Amino acid sequence: MELNDAELEAFLHEALPAERMAEIEQALRDDAALVQRLAQVASLIDSGVVSIGGVWRRERLTCASRDELGSYLLGTLDPSRREYLDWHLRLVGCPFCRANLDDLRRQQSESPERSETRRRKFFQTSVGRLPRSGPKKPSA
Amino acid sequence: MNKTAIRSEDVLLEQVARGDQFAWAELIARFEGRLLAFVASRTGDRTEAEDIVQETFCGLLTSLPNYDRRRPLESYLFSIAAHKLADWLRRRQRRPSLPLASMLDHGAAEPASPARPASSIARSGERRHLQYQALADALAQILGQWLDQGLTRKVACCELLLVRGWANKEVAAALGLSEQAVANNKFELIEKLRGHVRRQRLSPDVFPELYERNG
Q: Which end of chain A is flanked by fewer CB atoms within 10 Å, N or C?
């Protein structure tokens, strides 16, 4: 498998599309030299070396806003921006924009009860870590 | 839920930091769906993904005092989720545990040595941050201009090359460009960034990529 440092860096940050992440995981299981290269890339990042792709990805310089993704789903986005987002989602495979898009789609089909149950669980398992001085929810 | 409609991110975070449970519930409702979609795409199992998202929210509260508010909350939450996910994948041996940095041959890289005085490391950290920010600002400016001008193919071309690490040939085929056009787009971006580094008198050592490729 051909892998360059840009892709390995993105792999370390879980910033590749899921299918590519799985392929690289498989390659790493079979290739000790690739693991060593991955470790070297991690070390370079730790030492402060900055890659253009790393900055672009971390700052999410070309990611869509949530509103834009909503318009993309509705088909009301400006054609030029739509064309770019098609590439960003399909070719670049940005996992963060894909996640937002999946979530927006799911909101249209998921029952409100189901999402409310899940949110309540997240709330109840984390609220104990909040500072204690603020307003309390009655159910908490 | 509180009566107020949609609170801005800053207000929401401020209220969460003060322990406002209504604000915390609102923050969870706003972000859990996208985090769950991100994590589930990797675990393939929504129940496991929910556990990781739960850890992500706990991680946010734990790290809140150190959170740099200049960074968008969504990006910060995704980065916490990515860390939790990577831990989960390592425990299942889907992701390798990497050798310690100190065991590697760094070549030109020079990691911070424990022997260095703390003040020197802090100064170095500040300098790195400024240099990083300068590159981020320059890149944002260039890409913003190109997108405003409708040069979307040029942006996608550079993104595939630099963010995904595709070869010129692959990018040319995917975007319907000649390989020469792909090389020209990359050269133009690198040249603009080099100019910025020179004008800002930034250390080229921090950005080796600008001088190694298309040199």
A: N
For chain A, the residue count is 140
Can you tell me the mean pLDDT for B172-194?
Answer: 96
Instruction: Note the pLDDT tens digit of each residue in B87-135.
Output: 999 999 888 887 654 344 333 333 333 344 444 444 567 777 888 888 8
**A23 alpha carbon, distance to own chain's centre:** 17
Residue with tokens 């706990």: B58
Q: What is the pTM of this model?
A: 0.87
User: What does R_g of chain A's alpha carbons equal in angstroms?
Assistant: 20
> Could you count the other beta carbons within 10 Å of the beta carbon of residue B175?
18
Asked whether the beta carbons of residue B37 and residue A38 sit closer than 8 angstroms, the reply is: no
Contact B101 A36 (CB under 8 A): no
At B113, list the tokens: 């040595």
Q: Provide the CA A109 distance to its chain's centre, in angstroms.
A: 22
Whether the Cβ atoms of residue B90 and residue B98 lie closer than 8 Å to each other: no
Q: According to the 3-state scheme, what is the secondary structure of chain A?
A: CCCCHHHHHHHHCCCCCHHHHHHHHHHHHHCHHHHHHHHHHHHHHHCCCCCHHHHHHHHCCCCCCHHHHHHHHHCCCCHHHHHHHHHHHHHHCCHHHHHHHHHHHHHHHCCHHHHHHHHHHHHHHHHHHCCCCCCCCCCC
B contacts of A121 (beta carbons < 8 Å) = 50, 54
Query: What's the gap between Cα B16 and its chain centre?
Result: 24
Q: Give the span between the Cα atoms of B2 and B21, in whole angstroms.
A: 9
Burial B116-146 (b: 16+ CB within 10 A, else e): eeeeeeeeeeeebeebbebbbebbeebbeeb
Separation in Å, CA of A72 to nearest CA in chain B: 16
